[in-house]
Structures are given as structure tokens and as C-alpha cells.
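Data availability (excerpt). The following record was deposited with the supplementary files.
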Amino acid sequence: MPNYAVGDIQGCFLEFKEGLKLIKFDTSRDFLWITGDLINKGPDSLKVLKYVYANRKSMHLVLGNHDLHFLNCFFNKIPIGKEDTFDSLMKYKKVIKLANYLLNQPFVFSKKIFIDKKIQSVGMVHAGIPLDMSLKKVEILSRLIKMKLLSNPKKFLKSIFKNEEGFIEEVFIDTVNFFTRARVVKRNGKPDFSYKGNKNNISKNSFPWFDKKLKLMEDLDYLVFGHWAALEGKTGVENIRALDTGCCWGKELTFLRLEDKKEFKVQSKQK
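Predicted structure:
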């Protein structure tokens, strides 16, 4: 029962299918971890989401910022932007089924798997985790946020994207944004969402969210995340792995077998 993790697919269905063939993915016994951003930017968001939904018993996924963007457009009837590529998904006659499926996904996921002849804990998030949050606190917040999202998706999503106060506690807005958008943090621990470059050009007053000792890692042996394509899969931290390698930008889609950390790469077909 191998566990494979894959970085941001972002609608790149042909590369996704090629990768599944490369790893010989068997839906009857294997598990696929998806680091969020299943959709948008690439050409086939609907195909990706339909495949994942059809094989949902074999899938572990967390929500990313592009997944939330789609949900906000759908539930709040917001016209999609010029750079969005999920128009076919919005027009799909069973879109509500797929939207509800995403609503039920967590922001952070962890699971114990058998690695090197012992049980190890592996976690997954789309973007980042605040420095001082334990695994228990992270998972509690993930569950609470999902409950709020399910109870009133229109107001919750509106609150996140417009950063409105009143409906939802500020801590939940901050946490959702960190889970789905963070790359670097300032010295005060607050994220700087404007930065999208590589590690080398970060200002002296900021640092990658994973560069300091994370309380979360006291309870995890390994952590995978996506979102930050400019890292090209490299964090410099042995047990924290970046998996977004820019498939939708013409680079690669990366799969990682969690049991032995073997990589499988598919060249992008995007231009």
C-alpha cells in the first residue's frame, strides 16, 4: 500500500495521468496525497477534479488557494477572472457535487505510515504552518475551519477573500491564509503574502516559514507542501519537502513515494 504525494496539479490533467502511469498507481491499494491547488492555470481543471472525485477513496488532499478561489466564485456567483481556467468546471452540470467534495476537504492532513520498518507520522499542507502551532492545534483549527466552511460557505468565503470582520473570528482568517498562501514570514511571525520569489532574494527582515524550528515537527517525522514553485522542490530542511515544481508554468509535475522518498517527474506540456 504505497503512499505517493504530488505537488500542485493546477489543471494539468495530461501530466497528472502520465505521472499516475509512471508510478503505476493502483487505486485498489495505493494512496495519493495531493498538496492542494488541484485546479486553475492549467487547461483541464474539470478532468482533474472528476478523476480525483471518482477515485476519492484512494485520495488524501488539502485545500489550496486556487481551490478556495473556485469555491468563492461558485458559491458567491463571482465572474471568473481573465487568468482563470476553470470555466468548464463552473459550467459542468454536476459542479455542485464537486464543489461540495472540496468543501469537505481539510486544510491540514496527517497520517501514520510504515517507513523504514517503523511507523512514522507524515503531514501535508498546501502552503505553510505558523511556527508556534502544535500538530494538535493545527488539526483542531483545520477541523473548526472546515465546519464553518460547510455551515455557511457563502459568508465564510466572502469573509476570507474580503478579510471582513464580524462574521468570523480573525484567528480563522489568519490561519486559513497561512495554510493556503504563506511563503515567507517577517520577524514578528506575520506572513508576507506579496513575496513569490526564491529563497535567495528574500529580504533580511523575512525568512521562509519552514526555516525556523516548527512546533508542529515535534509530532511529525515528515511534512510535504506545495504552493511555492520558485523553490523548485528544495527547502534545505531534510524532513520538510516542497512539491510544487511549476507544472502549469512549463516545468515539471513531481510525485514522491513517501515510503522511500523516491521522486518521479513528468515534464510539463504547457507553454
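Summary of structural features: The domain at 3-267 is CATH 3.60.21.10 (Purple Acid Phosphatase; chain A, domain 2).
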